[in-house]
Design brief:
By secondary structure, the protein is of the alpha/beta class. It has a single domain, classed as Rossmann fold, CATH 3.40.50. A 6-stranded mixed beta sheet has the order 1-3-2-4-5-6, sandwiched between helices. 35% of the residues are buried.
């Protein structure tokens, strides 16, 4: 069972297993919900969690197409999560988007070849970066009409 801490949207098990999806790892409940809502609204399948350990398990079980992670989280932090994922997946690690106010975000972005979005950020900027990451991951052009809507 999934509770409010580990949310799956769009009937994850019926629509997503083996399909492209975004994994969000963010301990701020409100921000996690805003990102999840935005990405779901424009057609992405999304899974979210505030816990890096759970995120690592999900990545091993069903690798995401794109990973969005904070760095500063209680317990296992985002940098530790990314290092574990790098060891596990090597060059097959999905594109990563780091969203963080941490001063280390730039250095870690370089270390993991990740896109970096400093907090606070505009949701339109995040959406653009997610679209770019999907294009990179899928090796093809994402249908812009399917994944583009104006931010209200």
């Amino acid at each position: 069972m999934y509770d409010d801490q580990h949310r799956l949207t769009k009937s994850f098990y019926t629509q997503c297993m083996g399909s492209p999806y975004v994994l969000i790892v963010e301990d701020d409940h409100d921000l996690r919900r805003m990102i999840e809502s935005l990405l779901t609204k424009v057609g992405y399948v999304v899974e979210s969690t505030p816990h890096a350990d759970f995120a690592f398990q999900r990545c091993r079980d069903n690798p995401p197409t794109v990973i969005i992670t904070d760095l500063m989280m209680p317990g296992v932090d985002g940098a530790s999560l990314l290092r574990r994922l790098q060891r596990w997946f090597g060059d097959d690690l999905a594109p990563v988007i780091i969203i963080s106010a941490s001063q280390a975000r730039g250095q870690l972005g370089k270390e993991f070849g990740a896109r970096v979005l400093p907090k606070p950020f505009r949701m339109a900027d995040l959406l653009q970066i997610v679209q770019e990451a999907f294009q990179e991951s899928l090796g093809e052009s994402v249908d812009a009409a399917q994944h583009t809507q104006s931010e209200n």
